[in-house]
């Protein structure tokens, strides 16, 4: 289920067997439920539990924040009762951690409940029925009959157990296989139920692929559509509209919390690619023939910490979350779940070029995406080499990554602090990273520091070439933490609020309302595509963590106000979507929002590859694309570089300096080993830190922006990599824009460069 995405059943699941269970309960049981979920190590994909709620329920807060369970016991057993108008049911929730090495059926259920059990779950040849001893375990024969329908175990995704003589049914997530406890892959959630009613199997009033008429859509109405009173956290190993997460945990579910009344619910299911938050109800057709299970538990908020802690132990993948700080602060385990452990992915090197779309002026863009295995520095190896120009950079660096004053193209660090429109900016407090390409009117906004360690970190550089206008540094009309009056809210209006004509794909290593991904890639941005016949698209790139939430309204992270950040938006023709998508793919981004329809993905194969997580497996590991922005009067040349992990290339010296054949100045963190390059035809010089931008002094160490200036080409490249040895193994990007006005604005701030031995 996609949070606030409308009810949408995955068609592929229609033919499969699935199971659904929803339990309502008072909030006093939230900690018990959250703790049980934490032990299942779930991946949370949606969450809007406010701090007020999380502060009340410690286990729910731990679940939401991803706080790990480090000590024994590695088994959680919670008991509570459902909340109902006429009848209540006794619930037991078991959460089994991967370190328990315990089989869920024979060792946990049979022993804990001291009873014979019958199970329905896939098994291997070594895990047999147990007929000896006081309590037996018997496998139910397949196929079996359900209300006239013959169900096969092999085609059924639901798993469950019957506890004989206790009127208990347990809904489980584990197979009955040896590998599940030997290889520490058992992340499980199960619900034994004592209930006073006598239900029988029967067909629902409507088929599950319909958006009305059955209990699942009624249960999740406030998830697939917006309800300001309901905050959510959703998790799945195979979330809707995203590539399968390939995590060990198979857990899937949603937590819903009423931010007014003392009410919460925990919805658990087995369906892949289901449900999209705010995406309407959509059932995956391929699942129709399969068996699936659904479980919904209602409870009071007091148990949110228990639920949060239980989910944390499932190591879930969170794909949607709008739990506000008010809820997370109340429930520590829920907060821990939201801010949990990252899942890493594979990286590359991509270089794409295109032109922005504008009413009066356009700019040429080059976008670089660098993979972690490229082992390439974003500044010296990529920007300086790719642009064949000397560059000046503004980015944090280490002692080993120095300015490069030798060779044909130099790399110089911009001195810190620098002056921008009356403000002194120090590198140490600036999150913005960028590079100026000397002689090419190009500025690159980057994501990487100029450090040896960054070579193993994926990165991006978006380089803007613009020669028409002559911008100057100045303060915006409104503060960035306001939701109106500045360019970001205007640019992203159709991302933070719904517009049926605009489809989006958003990515970030630290997405809003989700745990930091801890991935090597630092890429952050949004693609917007007009689905009408207007041939319009935009690419928004930024450096701010926990920003922006899709359909969540404008919300600026207060902790980032004192730091330096960079924002770049390029408008382009849809014909360039493949170039942009390919450049992004090389950065190995983490996609946190996507509603690109099949009609658009079918037209643009690289965009489809990006959305579905297709890996790049063959050489070349460096992509260089060129295109022109879209404008009515003037266009700009764009070059986008994407660097793969396996390229082992430094983004600045090897890629930008060499590819663009020019001296460059870079602004990015660096280490002691990578210095300015002053020898040879093209130099690489580090821009001195701090530097001045408008009225602010920007320091490299506090600036998330990374960029390079290509001398003699009026080109600025926005990058994602640091200038470090370690960055050679990290994917990265550089987007290079040729524009004399933008270049001059950067070169004025990056006038001072560090010595060649730094």
Automatic annotation (TrEMBL):
GO molecular function terms attached to this record: deoxyribonuclease II activity
Pfam family name, one: DNase_II
Keyword terms: Hydrolase
Source superkingdom: Eukaryota
InterPro entries linked to this entry: DNase_II
Family per similarity comment: Belongs to the DNase II family.
Record-given protein name: Deoxyribonuclease-2-alpha
């Amino acid at each position: 289920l996609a949070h606030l995405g409308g009810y949408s059943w995955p068609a592929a699941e229609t033919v499969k067997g699935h199971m659904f269970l929803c339990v309502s309960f008072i909030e006093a049981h939230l900690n018990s439920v959250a703790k049980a979920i934490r032990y299942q190590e779930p991946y949370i994909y949606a969450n809007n539990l406010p701090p007020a709620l999380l502060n009340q329920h410690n286990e729910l807060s731990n679940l939401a924040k991803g706080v790990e369970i480090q000590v024994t016991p590695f088994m959680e057993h919670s008991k509570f009762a459902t909340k109902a108008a006429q009848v209540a049911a006794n619930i037991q929730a078991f959460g089994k951690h991967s370190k328990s090495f315990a089989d869920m059926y024979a060792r946990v259920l049979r022993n804990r409940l001291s009873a014979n059990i019958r199970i329905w779950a896939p098994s291997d040849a070594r895990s047999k029925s147990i007929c000896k001893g006081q309590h037996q375990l018997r496998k139910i024969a397949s196929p079996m009959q359900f209300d006239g329908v013959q169900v096969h175990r092999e085609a059924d995704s639901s798993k469950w157990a019957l506890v004989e003589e206790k009127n208990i049914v347990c809904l489980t997530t584990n197979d009955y296989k040896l590998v599940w406890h030997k290889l520490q892959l058992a992340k499980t959630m199960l619900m034994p139920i004592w209930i006073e009613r006598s239900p029988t199997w029967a067909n629902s009033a409507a088929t599950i692929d319909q958006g009305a008429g059955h209990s699942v859509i009624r249960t999740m109405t406030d998830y697939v559509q917006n309800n300001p009173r309901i905050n959510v956290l959703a998790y799945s190993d195979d979330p809707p509209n995203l590539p399968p997460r390939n995590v060990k945990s198979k857990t899937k579910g949603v937590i819903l919390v009423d931010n007014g009344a003392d009410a919460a619910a925990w919805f658990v299911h087995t369906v892949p690619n289901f449900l999209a938050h705010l995406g309407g109800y959509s059932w995956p057709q391929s699942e129709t023939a399969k068996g699936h299970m659904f479980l919904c538990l209602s409870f009071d908020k007091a148990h949110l910490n228990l639920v949060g802690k239980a989910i944390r132990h499932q190591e879930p993948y969170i794909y949607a979350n709008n739990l506000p700080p008010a809820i997370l602060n109340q429930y520590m385990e829920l907060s821990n779940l939201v801010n949990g452990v990252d899942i890493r992915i594979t990286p590359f090197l991509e270089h794409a070029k295109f032109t922005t779309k504008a009413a009066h002026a356009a700019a040429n863009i080059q976008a670089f995406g660098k993979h972690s295995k490229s082992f390439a520095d974003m500044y010296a190896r990529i920007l300086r080499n790719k642009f064949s120009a000397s560059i000046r950079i503004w980015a944090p660096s280490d002692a080993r990554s120095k300015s490069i004053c030798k060779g044909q193209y130099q790399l110089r660090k911009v001195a810190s602090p620098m002056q921008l429109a009356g403000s002194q900016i120090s590198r140490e407090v600036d999150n913005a990273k960028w590079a100026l390409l000397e002689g090419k009117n190009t500025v690159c906004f980057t994501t990487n520091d100029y450090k040896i360690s960054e070579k193993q970190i994926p990165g991006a550089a978006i380089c803007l070439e613009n020669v028409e206008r002559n911008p100057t540094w100045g303060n915006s009309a409104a503060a960035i933490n306001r939701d109106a009056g500045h360019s970001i809210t205007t640019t992203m209006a159709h991302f933070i609020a719904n517009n049926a004509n605009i489809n989006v794909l958003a990515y970030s290593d630290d997405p809003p309302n989700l745990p930091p991904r801890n991935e090597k890639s630092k890429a952050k941005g949004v693609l917007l595509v007009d689905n009408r016949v207007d041939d319009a698209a935009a690419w928004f790139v930024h450096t701010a963590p926990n920003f922006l939430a899709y359909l969540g309204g404008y919300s600026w992270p207060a902790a980032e106000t004192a730091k330096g950040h960079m924002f770049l938006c390029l408008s382009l023709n849809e014909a360039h979507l493949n170039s942009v998508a390919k450049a992004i793919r090389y950065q190995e981004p983490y996609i946190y929002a996507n509603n690109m329809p099949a009609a658009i993905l079918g037209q643009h194969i690289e965009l489809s590859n990006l959305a579905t997580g297709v890996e790049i497996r063959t050489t070349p590991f460096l992509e260089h694309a060129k295109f022109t922005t879209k404008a009515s009067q003037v266009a700009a040349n764009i070059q986008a570089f994407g660097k793969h992990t396996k390229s082992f290339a430094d983004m600045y010296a090897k890629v930008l300096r060499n590819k663009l054949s020019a001296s460059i100045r870079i602004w990015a963190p660096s280490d002691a080993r990578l210095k300015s390059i002053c020898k040879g035809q093209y130099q690489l010089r580090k821009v001195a830190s701090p530097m001045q931008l408008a009225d602010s002094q920007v320091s490299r160490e506090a600036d998330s922006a990374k960029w390079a200036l290509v001398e003699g080409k009026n080109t600025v490249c926005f990058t994602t990599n640091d200038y470090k040895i370690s960055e050679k193994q990290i994917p990265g990007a550089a987007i290079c824009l040729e524009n004399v006005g933008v270049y001059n604005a950067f070169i004025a701030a990056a006038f001072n460069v560090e010595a060649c031995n730094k």
